[in-house]
Amino acid sequence: MPDTTDADGLTVGQVSARLGVTVRALHHWDEIGLAQPSLRTAAGYRLYTAGDLERLHRIVVYRELGLGLDRIRTVLDDTADVLGALRAQRTQVAERIDRLQRLGAGLDRMIEAHERGPLLTDEQQAAIFGPGWDPDGPARARRRYGDTTQWRQYAERSASRGPEEWQSVADAVAGLDRALGEAMDAGVLPGSPEANRLVERHREVFAPYFPLTRQMQVCLGRMYEADAGFAAHYDGIRPGLSMWFRRIIDAGARAHGIDPDTATWDGGQEERR
User: Fold this and answer.
1) pTM for this entry
2) HEC string of the chain?
3) What are the phi and psi torsion angles at 88 (to 5°)?
4) Terminal Cα-to-Cα distance of the chain (whole angstroms)
5) Is 70 exceeded by the pLDDT of residue 272?
C-alpha cells in the first residue's frame, strides 16, 4: 500500500463521522479484509479513497438490511450473487416488517388498555356487563388505580381479550353472584366447606382481572360491605349479602392463618411472593 499525504484521502475519524460508523468497526473491517483503506500516510495512518468510500457505503447499506459481514463480503466480491442475495434479504425484510407491524399493533392495544381498560365499545360493554354497567366506571378506576401494579396486570389481560372472552368473564361473575345468593338462602355458615369453596371460587373468578391473594381478598371483602356501590350490588341480589360475603371471606382467610383484622393490600403482595 503506497504512502501519501493526508490530502489524498480521508482519515478513519473523518470516515467514521461521514458514514456514522464507529472507528472500531472500521478497524475491524480492515483487519478482516472486508474494507481496507487504499492509502497510508507517511506516519502509517489509514486513508480512505473515493473508491474505498463507495465500498464502505455499500457495506453500511447491507448491514442496515441485516446481512452479516460474511454475506456482505460475498455480495461485494461476487457480482453474480448480488441479485439473489438482495432478493433473499428483501424477503427477510418483508417478514421483519410484518412482525414489527404486529408488534406495533399489540403495543397500541396495550397502550389503549392502560388508558381505558376493556377494549370494548360502550355498546359492547352494556351488552356484556348488563343494565348495571356504568359507562364512567372504567375512567374512574383508571384515575384511582392507574398507577398500581394491579391496574397494569388488568391492562395486560385486557389488551388480549375480546368480546367473547369478556363475556365468559361476565358469565363467571354472574354465576358466582347467583351461587352466593343461593348459599345465603340455604343458611351456609362462614367457615363451612361450602362457604370456603365459594371463597376460592371468588378468587378464581377474579383472576382474569389480576392475581388475588387471600389478604387482598379480605380487603375486597371489606370494600364490598363498606362501599355504597358494591354494597348496593350485593344487597340487591339478597338483602345482607354484602355483610355475609365479607364474613365468609374473613373465615376463609382465618382457615389459612390470616387475621382479617390485620390484613392489608400490601401484605397481599408479600403473601404472593
Assistant:
1) 0.62
2) CCEECHHHCECHHHHHHHHCCCHHHHHHHHHCCCCCCCEEECCCCEEECHHHHHHHHHHHHHHHCCCCHHHHHHHHHCHHHHHHHHHHHHHHHHHHHHHHHHHHHHHHHHHHHHHHCCCCCHHHHHHHHCCCCCCCHHHHHHHHHCCCHHHHHHHHHHHCCCHHHHHHHHHHHHHHHHHHHHHHHCCCCCCCHHHHHHHHHHHHHHCCCCCCCHHHHHHHHHHHHHCHHHHHHHHHHCCCHHHHHHHHHHHHHHHCCCCCCCCCHHHHHHHHC
3) -65, -40
4) 66
5) no
